[in-house]
Design brief:
Elements: H1 24-29, E1 34-37, E2 41-44, H2 45-61, E3 69-73, H3 78-89, E4 93-96, H4 103-113, E5 115-121, H5 125-131, E6 140-144, E7 159-160, H6 161-166, E8 182-187, E9 197-201, H7 202-218, E10 230-231, H8 240-243, H9 245-252, E11 255-258, H10 264-273, E12 278-281, H11 283-291, E13 304-307, H12 314-322, E14 326-332, E15 339-342, H13 354-361, E16 366-367, E17 372-376, E18 391-396, H14 408-414, E19 420-428, E20 434-439, E21 444-446, E22 449-451, H15 453-460, E23 466-476, E24 480-489, H16 499-513, E25 523-526, H17 540-551
Parallel strand pairs: 1-11, 3-4, 3-5, 4-8, 5-6, 6-7, 10-11, 12-13, 13-14, 24-25
Antiparallel strand pairs: 1-2, 8-9, 14-15, 15-16, 17-18, 18-19, 19-20, 21-22, 23-24
Helix pairs in contact: 2-3, 4-5, 7-9, 12-13
């Protein structure tokens, strides 16, 4: 039987899914809600809407048109939030520049994205000075300045951000256009070769916003996001739109707090003074905040935190819970906009002890609405959902990037077989919870069997002396590879515990907790710090390469 199509009447409004729609409801019911920057700048959603209009008029005055790219180099700020809306609402493309990349990588991304206008914080003058003469397409540079007068600058600025907004009208007629138009672009890190451009359309960003909000609001109590929450990002706005949460927070009309540059004292002070109740961060940031001496002065009992970017250890989950933090895992990747799953607990699970809850909070979680995820073998066949059968996670949803910017071969590999390949290995249990057990490239291949680096890390992290740990595979003549734990000790244990003691503790636990039997081959080395990517993830690739180089 043929499918019957429903056609709209000639006068019906098609209502494309554009980012500007996310502003409609908060302006209707939360017009007086507050946006704060570092506790020193405050204004209402009404003013936010006016500032978005002023920014659009200022950019239009610089010649920005639909399809052109506006790049931003700033810390997390109200200005960034304004750019999240104004630039794509004009029909232009927002490039969020990873300011933690090297100067050469930043130059590559700006030229590759063909940025027309660059908004840059004065803190990044040294980076700008190193690349200014080699920018191929940038026509205008706008100064972002939190401080006093600028004595010397590496380029000629067309104006300062606040001055441009002050001289521009607040009314801007944001047009309707195709919802599939590109809205944003940013560049992935932690891969070999040049960074890859990941891009998203208005439709994808709106659907991601709606789905994450539905999943967060659908939770009975644990981890639920609601209109009375106070939101502060602790993952950079240049990285996957701060996981999409600024769009969600704005749509829901939440009070929003932007911290600028991440400094532990500042973050802890804002959590306390602004009464922050919802954030998201990578495990290393959570570890940093919990271990900071000033954290003892902060009441965390209302703080809900999604942990992502890399695996959260059970030890960290336990430590966070004991400080009152409602911590749980979220999963995604740059190419997925990013959120795919959330590890919300059932109400019955909340009666368990922190130690009993930790394995559940550390699971990768349940899929969001509209997410189709599968665990498949090498032939793209589903494996059993028994909590033990493993394979690669592949996924479909309406908001996944369609490819890499101007990189057709890499895009084809990403979508081989019609599903986006995450390169993550995992399993699904009978309750539908996904658990990522490792990255394909991080699995340790010992005596023909796979050993999960994440599972071994989880064991090592249980030792009271361990501050941070990363487990990598190192070559071994007999076994092929052996796991090596690179351990950062807590300061009070330095010189008081040996590598041998950590190894024996871990080997005993490995034998009793179901981790691969080859995990007992673990070697331990103390290090002062773990190598991290520009977004705070543990960089195992560089640590492996450094170890191989040291042995060469």
């Amino acid at each position: 039987m043929p499918i019957k199509l429903v056609h709209a009447t000639p006068s019906a409004y098609a209502c494309p899914l554009l980012i500007k729609r996310l502003l409609l409801t908060p302006l209707a019911f939360a017009a007086d809600q507050e946006v704060s920057y570092q506790g020193r700048v405050r204004f209402s959603y009404t003013s936010l809407h006016q500032r978005i209009g002023r920014l659009a008029n200022a950019l239009a005055g610089l010649g920005v048109e639909a399809g052109q790219t506006v790049a931003v180099m700033d810390w997390d700020s109200h200005r960034y939030l304004e750019c999240f809306f104004a630039v794509p609402m004009m029909g232009a493309i927002l490039q969020t520049v990873n300011v933690r990349l090297s100067a050469e990588q930043i130059l590559y991304t700006l030229n590759h994205a063909k940025a027309d206008v660059l908004l840059v914080n004065r803190e990044f003058f040294p980076l700008l000075a190193a690349i200014a003469t080699r920018l191929e397409t940038v026509r205008h540079v706008v100064l972002i300045n939190d401080d006093g007068p600028v004595a010397e600058a590496p380029v000629l600025f067309v104006g300062e951000y606040e001055a441009l907004l002050a001289s521009a009208a607040s009314d801007y007629e944001f047009p309707d256009f195709d919802e599939n138009a590109q809205a944003t672009v940013f560049y992935t890190t932690g891969t070999t070769g040049d960074p890859k451009g990941v891009y998203f359309s208005h439709r994808q960003l709106v659907l991601h916003t709606l789905s994450v909000a539905a999943a967060m609001g659908g939770a009975a109590s644990h981890g639920r996001l609601h209109r009375e929450d106070v939101y502060m990002p602790v993952t950079p706005m240049f990285h996957v739109h701060a996981w999409g949460f600024p769009y969600i927070a704005t749509m829901l009309g939440l009070k929003q707090v932007y911290p600028g540059k991440y400094m532990p004292d500042q973050l802890l002070n804002l959590i306390r003074e602004e009464k922050v109740t919802f954030s998201h961060c990578v495990p290393t940031i959570m570890q940093m905040l919990l271990s900071h001496p000033h954290s003892a002065d902060v009441d965390f009992s209302r703080w809900k935190v999604v942990i992502g970017g890399s695996a959260m250890s059970q030890a960290l989950a336990i430590a966070a819970q004991k400080r009152g933090i409602d911590v749980f895992t979220g999963y995604g990747m740059s190419e997925t906009c990013p959120v795919l799953t959330l590890a919300h607990l059932h109400s019955d699970d909340l009666a368990l002890t922190p130690e009993e809850q930790a394995p559940l909070r550390c699971k990768t979680g349940l899929p969001l609405p509209l997410v189709d995820l599968r665990i498949v073998d090498a032939d793209m066949q589903n494996v059993a959902h028994d909590g033990s059968a493993t394979g690669e996670l592949v996924v479909r949803s309406p908001w996944l990037t369609q490819g890499y910017l101007a990189a057709p071969e890499a895009s084809e590999n990403l979508w081989a077989g019609g599903y986006l390949h995450t390169q993550d290995i995992g399993n699904i249990n009978p309750r539908g919870y996904l658990k990522i057990t490792d990255r394909i490239k991080d699995v340790i291949k010992t005596a023909g069997e796979w050993t999960s680096s994440l599972e071994v890390e989880n064991v090592v992290a249980k030792h009271e002396a361990v501050h941070e740990v990363a487990v990598i595979g190192v070559p071994d003549e007999r076994w092929g590879e052996r796991p090596l734990a690179l351990v950062v000790l807590k300061q009070e244990f330095e010189g008081k515990v040996t590598e041998h003691a950590i190894r024996n503790f871990s080997a005993h636990l490995i034998e009793t907790t179901g981790v691969s039997r080859h995990g007992v081959l673990l070697q331990v080395t103390f290090v002062k710090a773990l190598l991290k990517t520009s977004v705070g993830k543990i960089n195992k690739r560089e640590m492996r390469e450094a170890r191989l180089g040291a042995k060469a």
